Amino acid sequence: MLSLVDLGVITHVEVIEELVHVEMTPTFVGCPAMDIMKQEVIDVLQKNGWTSKVEINFRQPWSSDKISEKGKIALKKFGLAPPPGDAAIIADIDFLEHVPCPRCNSLNTELKNPFGPTLCRSIHYCRSCRETFEQFKPVG
Amino acid sequence: MNNEALKELLYKMADDLLILGHRNSEWTGMGPLLEEDIAFSSMAQDKIGQSLALYQLLHQLGEQEPDTVAFMRHARLFHNCLLTELPNAEYDFSLIRHFLFDTADALRWKSLTQSSYTPLAQLAGKVRGELRYHTLHANTWIKRLGSATDESISRLQQSLNELMPYALGIFEPSPFEEELIKRNIFEGERHLQAQWLLGIESVLNATELRLPDLKSLTPAYGGRVGKHSLHLQPLLDEMSEVFKLDPTAEW
């Protein structure tokens, strides 16, 4: 199970006088799922008896380095290749080639498209198990 | 504090992204390859999302709601450069526009990470990483098609010649230029243009394409002050058609 904290989308939580202040940030600025995620945070807190104030901001902008180790394992289990280590030093197309296949771990893979079915995913092909797979894109 | 200078900067950036985002979205279902269809659609989604974030900053500065600003203004109140509003034409034309615009846009956001206006600097820190995928996409295809066949090279060269005056229009001088520089909000269009030129040259030098002689060109200005081509109003009419059926509807 991948939580919004493990995904790095929840950047700050603070309880001030019975009110839960939550700060969230999108993986991509144009992420259309942001409002749904925000509403789910409000709903879950409410179900547990908390009143909340959720703010979306870019104070701590999301980067793929914000995904926790637990989050990376959960992504891989789900069939999505997790982003590689240090997104900040990634500078060229090479960083998208030879992404380890989430199914068979082969490095004999190729980039099919840096743009995928959602803004945060790219499309790859594994020459070993001959399956197409997706990667959660590194963004620095 | 008087925010006219800041608002002008935010409006022209937001309008560029909204209009070019819309043009990119017109490739959805029409791309020459499935991958390109997805790429232009994804870039459309990024750009429209980035424009929304900028309209939200403007809203915090007292401007109207983002939807109202995006869908209810007449063309003469838009500040996008003419480059962004031209119809898509053939793929080579869209690709060259994408390359020329996104090189400038990536440099603009990079410089804005240092802006003294914190909300903009924070947003820039985020957008900058996303734009890498846009410039990566543009540079990859320009390099590939710019040294492929006679047809691909001549098509790109022709579009480059045609679009260069419009690309110079990105950097139309702003009446607030000195103020923005003095207040450390933005480094200014002149400086950006110089950086941009180096950027596009380094990619073009890896191809058979030749940069047109800039001295012989007249920049296509006017967009920043609301003087648009005939192409913008029809785009706005189409973009806002559903919204205008019932502006108060909840989506």
Describe the structure.
The complex is a heterodimer of chains A (about 140) and B (about 250). With about 140 residues, chain A is an alpha/beta fold. Helix content of chain A is about 15%, strand content about 25%. Chain A contains two helices and seven strands; from the N terminus they run E-E-H-E-H-E-E-E-E. Chain A has helices spanning about 35-45, 70-80, and strands at about 10-15, 20-25, 50-55, 80, 110-115, 120-125, 130-135. In chain A, the strands form two sheets. Chain A has a four-stranded mixed beta sheet with strand order 4-7-6-5. In chain A, strands 1-2-3 form a three-stranded mixed beta sheet, with helices on one face. By secondary structure, chain B is an all-alpha fold. Chain B has a single domain (about 5-210, about 220-245), classed as Ferritin (Up-down Bundle). Chain B has helices at about 5-25, 35-60, 65-70, 80-85, 90-110, 120-145, 150-170, 175-180, 190-205, 230-240, 240-245. Chain B is globular. The model of chain B has no long low-confidence stretch (mean pLDDT about 95).
